[in-house]
C-alpha cells in the first residue's frame, strides 16, 4: 500500500461522479488524490510546489480529446519520472500504441473494473517510472480462446485446463483461484463460452472496490425507494441471468453479509431483491474468481463457509508463471504473433538473448505482465527481432550477469546474433549436431537416426564442419 508521504495521484477528470469513485478507490489503497479539471490546470500544477510530490497522473482521454498524446508528452517532458495512466472509452489498439509511444505507462478502458484500476496504481507504486514497462495491458490483447488454443505444457496448467473443460460441459458452480495475471478472467470467459449456457444471459461483476450497497443492488436488485438513491426498480444480475451465468471476479472481496446472502440464494434457488415482499425462483450458474484461497479465508473467519462449499463443486487453481517458466518461450511466441496483428504494430521475433532475459525474471504479475512487457517492447523496437536490448528495464533490474542460452529450453543452440540477425545456417547445423552427440552420449548410430540422416552423411558433416565426434 502506498504511503501518504510518497504517493500522490493527480487525476485529470472533469466528471465529478467518476472523480469521486476513483478518488475513493485510490484513497482506500493509501493514495492522496489531487483532482484537476483540465490539462492546462494539470500542467500548471505539476510545476508548482505541490506538483513536485505527484507520483502518478491519471488522465481521462475525454478531457484531453485529440490532444491526449500531446498532454502525455508534455508531462513526460516536464517530469519524466512520473507514471502516466490513460483512461478511455476507446478499445482501439492503435490508440493504445500511440499513447504508449507518447510515454503512457498504462491504458485503461472504461468502464474500468475497480480491481484493474487498483492493479495499475499498485504497479506504479511498486516500480519507478524507470521500470515502467511492467504495467498490465492484458485486456487489449485477450480474446476468448478455445481450450485447445491455450498455450502451455506445464502439468499443473494442463490439469487446470482439463478440469475447466470438464466443468464447461456441466452445470455446477466453478471457483477459480490464482494470483493476479494468471488467467482467471480468461478461463471464466472460456468456460462460459464453451458451456451449454453460452447463448443464455451473462453478466460480469467485479466485486473489488465497490460499496456494499452497490454490490447488493448489482447482484440481488432492489425495489424503488428500498435504499438511498433508489429512484427506480433495478433488476439484479442473478435475476437477469436466469438460465444463464454470472461471472464474479474478486469474490474474495465480497463483504461477509453479501456472502451469506448469496449462499442462501444458491442453496434455495430463490432471489429476493432488496425491499421486495417476495422472491422468485432462478436457475443461475456462478463462475467465481479469487486471488486468495477461499479455504484459508474461511479458516480465518473472513469468508462464508457455506458459500465456499457451494462454489467449490469444481475448484481450479491457476499456477503462477514462475512455477511454469518452461512455458515462457511458447507464450512469448504466441503473444508476439497476436501483437503483430494489431493495427499500427509490426511483426517481431525474439532472439535467444531476449528470451533468456524473460526467463530470468520471476514475473510477479504473471502471464498478464509478460504480455505487457512484450507489447511495450514491440511498440518501441524498430528491428524485427527483440533482443536483450529491447528490454532495458528488465536488464536493469536483473543486472548484467551472463545468463547464457535460454535456461528452460535447454537447447544449447542460439539462432540469433547479439545484433538480432540470424546466425549462418552452417553454424546452427554444427551446434545441432554437437547437441545431438552430447544428448545421445556419442552413440553415432542413434545420433544419425534421430537427425534423420545416414551414418556416412553424419561423418561427412562432422568432417566438413570441423566437429570432433567426442564433443
UniProtKB/TrEMBL annotation:
Domain Sigma-54 factor interaction stretches: 150-379
Localization: Cytoplasm
One Gene Ontology cellular component annotation held by this UniProt entry: cytoplasm
Keyword field contains Membrane: no
Modified residues (4-aspartylphosphate): 60
InterPro entries: AAA_lid_NorR, CheY-like_superfamily, Homeodomain-like_sf, HTH_Fis, P-loop_NTPase, Sig_transdc_resp-reg_receiver, Sigma_54_int, Sigma_54_int_dom_ATP-bd_1
A Gene Ontology biological process term: phosphorelay signal transduction system
Presence of keyword DNA-binding: yes
GO molecular function: ATP binding; sequence-specific DNA binding
Chief location category: cytoplasm
Keywords: Activator, ATP-binding, Cytoplasm, DNA-binding, Nucleotide-binding, Phosphoprotein, Repressor, Transcription, Transcription regulation, Two-component regulatory system
Domain Response regulatory as annotated: residue spans: 8-125
SMART domains xrefs: REC
UniProt function note: Member of the two-component regulatory system NtrB/NtrC, which controls expression of the nitrogen-regulated (ntr) genes in response to nitrogen limitation. Phosphorylated NtrC binds directly to DNA and stimulates the formation of open promoter-sigma54-RNA polymerase complexes.
Protein name: DNA-binding transcriptional regulator NtrC
Organism from which the protein derives: Qipengyuania vulgaris
Amino acid at each position: 500500500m502506498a504511503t501518504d508521504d510518497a504517493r500522490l495521484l493527480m487525476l485529470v477528470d472533469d466528471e465529478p461522479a467518476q472523480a469521486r469513485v476513483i478518488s475513493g478507490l485510490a484513497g482506500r489503497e493509501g493514495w492522496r488524490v489531487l483532482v484537476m479539471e483540465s490539462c492546462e490546470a494539470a500542467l500548471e500544477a505539476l510545476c508548482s510546489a505541490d506538483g513536485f510530490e505527484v507520483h502518478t497522473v491519471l488522465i481521462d482521454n475525454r478531457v484531453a480529446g485529440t490532444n491526449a498524446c500531446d498532454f502525455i508528452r508534455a508531462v513526460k517532458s516536464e517530469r519524466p519520472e512520473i507514471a502516466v495512466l490513460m483512461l478511455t472509452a476507446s478499445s482501439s489498439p492503435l490508440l493504445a500504441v500511440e499513447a504508449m509511444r507518447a510515454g503512457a505507462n498504462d491504458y485503461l478502458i472504461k468502464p474500468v473494473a475497480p480491481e484493474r484500476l487498483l492493479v495499475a496504481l499498485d504497479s506504479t507504486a511498486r516500480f519507478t517510472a524507470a521500470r515502467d514497462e511492467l504495467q498490465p495491458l492484458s485486456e487489449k490483447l485477450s480474446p476468448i480462446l478455445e481450450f485447445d488454443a491455450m498455450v502451455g505444457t506445464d502439468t499443473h496448467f494442463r490439469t487446470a485446463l482439463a478440469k475447466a473443460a470438464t466443468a464447461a460441459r456441466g452445470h455446477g458452480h466453478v471457483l477459480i483461484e490464482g494470483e493476479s495475471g494468471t488467467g482467471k478472467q480468461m478461463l471464466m470467459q472460456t468456460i462460459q463460452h464453451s458451456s451449454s449456457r453460452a447463448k443464455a444471459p451473462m453478466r460480469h461483476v467485479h466485486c473489488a472496490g465497490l460499496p456494499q450497497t452497490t454490490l447488493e443492488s448489482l447482484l440481488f436488485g432492489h425495489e424503488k425507494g428500498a435504499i438511498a438513491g433508489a429512484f427506480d426498480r433495478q433488476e439484479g444480475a442473478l435475476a437477469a441471468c436466469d438460465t444463464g451465468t454470472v461471472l464474479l471476479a474478486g469474490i474474495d472481496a465480497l463483504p461477509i453479509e453479501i456472502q451469506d446472502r448469496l449462499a442462501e440464494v444458491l442453496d434455495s434457488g430463490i432471489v429476493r431483491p432488496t425491499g421486495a415482499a417476495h422472491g422468485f425462483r432462478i436457475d443461475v450458474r456462478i463462475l467465481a474468481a479469487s486471488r486468495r484461497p477461499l479455504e484459508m479465508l474461511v479458516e480465518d473467519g473472513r469468508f462464508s463457509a457455506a458459500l465456499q462449499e457451494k462454489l467449490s463443486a469444481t475448484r481450479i487453481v491457476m499456477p503462477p508463471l514462475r512455477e511454469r517458466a518452461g512455458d515462457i518461450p511458447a507464450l512469448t511466441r504466441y503473444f508476439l504473433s497476436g501483437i503483430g496483428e494489431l493495427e499500427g504494430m509490426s511483426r517481431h521475433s525474439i532472439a535467444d538473448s531476449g528470451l533468456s532475459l524473460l526467463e530470468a525474471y520471476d514475473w510477479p504479475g504473471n502471464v498478464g505482465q509478460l504480455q505487457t512487457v512484450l507489447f511495450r517492447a514491440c511498440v518501441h523496437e524498430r528491428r524485427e527481432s527483440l533482443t536483450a536490448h529491447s528490454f532495458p528495464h528488465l536488464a536493469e533490474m536483473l543486472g548484467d550477469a551472463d545468463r547464457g542460452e535460454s535456461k528452460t529450453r535447454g537447447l544449447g543452440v542460439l539462432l540469433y546474433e547479439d545484433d538480432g540477425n540470424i546466425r549462418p545456417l552452417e553454424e546452427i547445423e554444427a551446434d545441432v549436431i554437437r547437441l545431438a552427440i552430447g544428448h545421445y552420449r556419442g552413440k553415432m548410430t542413434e545420433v544419425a537416426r534421430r537427425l534423420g540422416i545416414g551414418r556416412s552423411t553424419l561423418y561427412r558433416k562432422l568432417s566438413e564442419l570441423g566437429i570432433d565426434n567426442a564433443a
